[in-house]
Amino acid sequence: MAKLTLEELKKLREEKRKELNNRRTEGKDVQVIVGMGTCGIAAGAKDTFDAFLKEIDQSGLTNVTIRQTGCMGLCHSEPTVEVIVPDMPSVVYGNVNPDVAQRIVRKHIVGKIMINDHIFDKPAADIIK
């Protein structure tokens, strides 16, 4: 393994701090939860997770927590992602590739509009307060 310069180490430290900040929950009201069970990982959930990190960072959003969970029970529609935004129903999106992740950030999280062609689970309208 090659040795890193002090500048390279500082840059690496800053990149990792940004990544860790996306996983902190304090002061954040939006959650993105990526299913990272065996079936999710096999279907590309790692690329989806990375796409969320990149898009949220590029959008300058500081109120979003990104985290992972195990299997959500929707193996047929992996990768699955639950999105929780205040004043909107919690939604589980399926077949979320990096392009869909970008759409979720731009339309659902920023624009407050759900992406209907990828919704696989949401609460019934009559039980939403």
Short synopsis of the structure:
The protein has 129 residues and is of the alpha+beta class. It is built from 4 helices and 5 strands, in the order H-E-H-H-E-E-E-H-E.
Structure description:
With 129 residues, the protein is an alpha+beta fold. It has one domain: Glutaredoxin (3-Layer(aba) Sandwich), CATH 3.40.30.10. Helices cover 39% and strands 17% of the residues. It has 4 helices and 5 strands. It has a 5-stranded mixed β-sheet with strand order 2-1-3-4-5, covered by helices on one side. A hairpin with a 6-residue loop joins β3 and β4. The longest helix has 16 residues, at 6-21. The chain is globular and about 50 Å long. The mean pLDDT is 88.
Detail the topology: elements first, then pairings:
Elements: H1 6-21, E1 30-35, H2 38-43, H3 45-59, E2 64-69, E3 81-84, E4 91-93, H4 98-110, E5 119-121
Parallel strand pairs: 1-2
Antiparallel strand pairs: 1-3, 3-4, 4-5
